[in-house]
Amino acid sequence: MSQCVAVELKRRDYVYVMAPADYEMSGCPHCGCNECQWSEFVHRCWCPKCKVDFEPECAGVFDGPIMVELCGMLGIVFDSFDLTTQQMVPFEAPTWPLSPENPNAKVREE
Ligand SMILES: [Zn+2]
């Protein structure tokens, strides 16, 4: 008996306010486009030219421990946009998706 396992991609419920390239994530592996957007799926980006979702080869600043203050000096912010409530959530807010103060805190999903 063969078994078919459907792989279901997890949908994002928030995105960061800046584009993936601003966090030094690599662009589209197909066309090299560096103006990709967040995909609706976790761990993926969207290429507006190829119109495909892809997994970036390099996750930029998300690859290591994030030095938020250093990033701040470089103009990189981690404010997020909640796709459920359609509201901006500042990084400092207790409701920020990964905040230790957030009772509903999520695992890192970038
Ligand atoms: Zn592309």
Overview of the structural elements:
The chain has one helix spanning 68-73, and strands at residues 14-16, 37-38, 45-47, 52-54, 80-82, 87-89. Strand 3 (45-47) and strand 4 (52-54) form a beta hairpin. The protein is mainly β. The N and C termini lie far apart (37 Å). The radius of gyration is 15 Å and the shape is globular. A three-stranded antiparallel β-sheet has the order 1-5-6, with no helix packed on it. Strands 2-3-4 form a three-stranded antiparallel β-sheet, with no helix packed on it. The chain has a domain at 14-89. 5% of the residues lie in helices and 15% in strands. The mean pLDDT is 89. Zinc ion is lined by residues 28, 30-31, 33, 47, 49-50.
